[in-house]
Amino acid sequence: MKFTSKSPEETLNLGYRFGKKLKSGAVVALIGELGTGKTLFTKGIARALGVKEYEYVNSPSFVIVKEYKPKKKIPLYHFDLYRLESGHDLDTIGYEEYFYSNGITVIEWADRAMDILPEKHISVKFKHSGKNKRRITIEK
Ligand SMILES: Nc1ncnc2c1ncn2[C@@H]1O[C@H](COP(=O)(O)OP(=O)(O)O)[C@@H](O)[C@H]1O
Ligand SMILES: [Mg+2]
User: What CATH number does residue 38 fall under?
Assistant: First the structure.
């Protein structure tokens, strides 16, 4: 499925609608250059999952993964692999516990770890397409 987002709000809403359809255990690979909307899209997913502080969901800078656990709802595991130097970093945090859990895992810069992603993941690709335009492609 392909979308053109014409504003940050539209990308957030797209993430929200996408998040509403996600099932427990889903792994979502977000792929695209800096500033293409991966984090905004993740905020939308967080909102859909009932994360109250969704507006504060930001790319984790000093950790690779942040966990959000809305009460009685599915947890969200937000990875950002921008600073990942090798697959080794991920081994040390035990990524499998997240990827193969009942939570929802969203991974920014997932192209840096394609070899370890569960086969059954959803890819969302982001591309710049003008100042405030982004092409967003969802592939199951
Ligand atoms: N249509 C759009 N969708 C998403 N972000 C947009 C759009 N137009 C402009 N922007 C801007 O691009 C930036 C996207 O940031 P962010 O979501 O953090 O990207 P990433 O996580 O991919 O680096 C924000 O500053 C946002 O305001
Ligand atoms: Mg980001």
Answer: 3.40.50.300
